[in-house]
Amino acid sequence: MRKPENFYKIDNETITIGSQPVTIDVSKEGFFVTQCGGLNHWNNVVLFEMDWEKDQYNIKICVLGEGTDGWYLHEKLPIPKSLMRTISSFKEFVIVNMVDVASNVDLTNVEPNLAGETQLDAVEKKHNVPSSSGPNVTYEVTENVGGIADLWSCTCPAYQYSKEIPQTCKHIKSINT
Ligand SMILES: [Zn+2]
After folding, report:
1. In the chain, pLDDT over 90 holds for what percent of residues?
2. For the chain, which residues make up each domain, given as ranges?
């Protein structure tokens, strides 16, 4: 579907989920949902990445103040076109999704993608690094693997066979400088 012409109109709209007011903040990726009003104790914001071309959206849990760094709670969900027509139906879409988020994630905690598991000290981050050997090859570098600060991994063969301790590769080194 095409991006709804009036999509920008939802920017700064406030909705209430349970008793929690939240604000919609339109961004280039889609929109953020952030806590507002009263006691602010969320340490996360929820990013809805809207892929209008593919009619899909992702829900990403981002660390407050860290931009779009975070982890995916859901990926490639179908965009319900009927709810994109009006501001009020769009708000319904946000509420349904935020109820699902709140039932899966404690938004007051900064935690990796195993909601409710051990409190870890860092949030796993994924970086895509293009391979120097081919234009269509990309490796995925993971920072803070399993929520462990400064633990890195990469999907490239050099990392897999690295004899260094800890294992490393040029893709990790290109980011971790
Ligand atoms: Zn690598």
Report:
1. 44
2. 6-104, 125-175
